[in-house]
Amino acid sequence: MSTTLIAADPVLEVRNLCVDYGLGEDAVHGVTDATLTLRRGEVLGLAGESGSGKSTLAYALTRLLRAPGVITGGEVLFHNRPQGSATTETVDLLAADAAKLRQIRWSQLAVVFQSAMHALNPVARVDAQLTDVLKAHRKQMTPAQRRERAVELLRMVGISEDRLRSYPHELSGGMRQRVMIAMALALEPQIVIMDEPTTALDVVTQREILEELMQLRERLGFSIIFITHDLSLLIELADSIAIMYAGRLVERAGANELFHTPRHPYSLGLLNSFPALHGDRIRMEGIPGSPPSLTALPGGCAFHPRCAFAMDRCGSETPRLERPQRDDSSGNRKDGEERLAACWLQDGRQSPPAPLAIGLSAPAAERPGQGIPSQETPGHENHGLESQGLENNGLESNGHEITGSDR
Questions:
Q1: CA angle, 339 then 238 then 112, to 5°
Q2: What residue ranges in 22-137 does DSSP mark as E strands?
């Protein structure tokens, strides 16, 4: 992750995006009112359990969603500024025609799909797959120039030239993933969407690929939407993080903010689901229950049946994604973009439970000196970050310690 987050202008804005599977009353709401902003040079992490809508959101904003998926509302604004150009063209990807989409896809907005073994063509050699995109978008290149570019791309991701004539099954999992990244960067796009690119890899290979990816990002300046269910990975990798649950965004914050001061119980539960690598040994506590079926979502906040801090209101009213009351933080962005959470505990009517109140200012009635009353829930003492030994020790993710200096 970059040590300083640049206050850059947006390259992609997603506004109130809605996606259904099917039509009519029986439609399943895969994504509901998703709003995100990706800035130039930023790594935006998208996290949540399997089935939360992460991949659906990614494929919808690129118009790659397959039937029966249907985009039912919203805007996806791509602020296109080709390399070397001083002007910006704003394109609504949801309204663009097929010709415009073909012009933008891969050249300006590329995707690294889930499962490299299935994403690569098993009967085509690596060189054919790398040069295919060059044939489509760089028609002026000669065969020799295309091959030279393919060699350059492989070297860029740490693969030797002699692998150009290999088939995908002749490569290791890590090499296949590197080939996918090389293909995505072939035309030097402004945005790369990575859908769980390292899920099936061992931690050593994962570390190598992510380090190479971050070096390429620093060198080429592209933005990344990084989708994963591994929140510990995003805390190390991303500049900002959005948490999804049951098709909705439930929290958005800077990575450092989310790690140290989560505002939504689901974010807190995800943080408490991986162990600290130093400090006292403690009993791990995951999130109770299972994610709900999108065909039968509970009323109100979809997380309330699994929430240790649920109130009566949570089962009947759906909270909006808004700035938490009494949260004076402005994120780790220099432009002060607000953090957001969709939780009734943060609406200012009551003091949030202690694990969700770290860093909040006290209500006016409790000033000066009275402090926030303890809100520990009986039987849930270990839901705070303190219980994981994380508040002072940082996080070691895949062998790298995260401390304040890393932010």
A1: 120
A2: 28-39, 43-47, 69-80, 89-92, 109-112
Query: From CA 249, how far away is CA 118, in angstroms rounded?
Result: 29
Tell me the Cα Rg of the chain. 22
Which residues, in sequence order, are CB contacts of 58 under 8 Å at separation 6+? 46, 111, 193, 195, 225, 227
pLDDT tens, residue by residue, 315-362: 999 999 999 987 765 444 444 457 899 999 999 888 899 999 887 765
Number of residues in the chain: 407
User: How big is the CA angle at 348 (ends 262 and 341), to the nearest 5 degrees?
Assistant: 35
The terminus-to-terminus CA distance of the chain in angstroms comes to 8
Give me the residue spans of the domains in the chain. 10-229, 265-406
168-197 pLDDT, tens per residue?
A: 999 988 899 889 999 999 999 999 999 988
Q: Buried (b) or exposed (e) across 70-86, using 16+ Cβ within 10 A?
A: ebeebebbbbbbeeeee
240 phi and psi, to 5 degrees?
A: -135, 160
Q: Does the domain made of 10-229 have the CATH classification 3.40.50.300?
A: yes
Whether 222 and 192 have beta carbons less than 8 Å apart is answered as yes
Q: What would the mean pLDDT of 17-36 be, rounded to a whole number?
A: 93
